[in-house]
Specification:
The protein has about 160 residues and is mostly helical. The chain is about 75% helix and about 0% strand. It is elongated and about 65 Å long. The chain starts with a helix and ends with a helix.
């Protein structure tokens, strides 16, 4: 995606003699094609990120719809395992999420812990909350850590 942005910038410079973006009202056909390719790439990336998060959300949804949700649930274990695997894959830089998607990932993982806590699966919830606090470091993730800390406090009250 960065390459496409760079190409789009180079294309703009090539079409204007000063090297600055052209300000004409009709964009060149090459620029329009690059813009379409960039938009298509972004759409593909967004869809791929959604599919990755669905690896966590689908079993989580199945778990929350069990009657009653059980700590031994295969859906809970699958959701937790998938969440941890996705984070480990992102951390190993096998693929990258932009900051917005990393926040979505972290939020989804806290949702897993919250669902486990609500179902009375305190050990599973605590492990996931601790994981979030340990992995999602930095000021951009303060809200995620706060959610995890609140969940831990709620566990302590039980």
């Amino acid at each position: 995606m960065r390459i496409l942005l760079l190409l789009a910038g180079c294309a703009l410079s090539a079409f204007h003699p000063s090297g600055a973006p052209a300000q004409s009202s009709s964009a060149s056909p090459k620029f329009e094609e690059l813009q379409k390719q960039l938009e298509a790439s972004q759409k593909e990336l967004d869809e791929a990120n959604a599919r990755i998060l669905d690896l966590i959300r689908k079993p989580l949804s199945d778990f929350t719809h069990e009657s009653p949700p059980r700590c031994e649930s295969e859906n809970l274990h699958k959701s937790v395992a998938n969440a941890l695997n996705v984070v480990e894959t992102v951390e190993s830089r096998k693929f990258t999420f932009d900051p917005k998607e990393q926040l979505n990932l972290g939020s989804t993982i806290v949702d897993v812990a919250d669902a486990a806590r609500k179902a009375g699966c305190n050990n599973e919830a605590r492990a996931v909350y601790d994981y979030v606090i340990g992995v999602f470091v930095g000021s951009g993730y303060a809200a995620l850590r706060q959610r995890a800390e609140s969940g831990i406090q709620d566990l302590s009250k039980r």
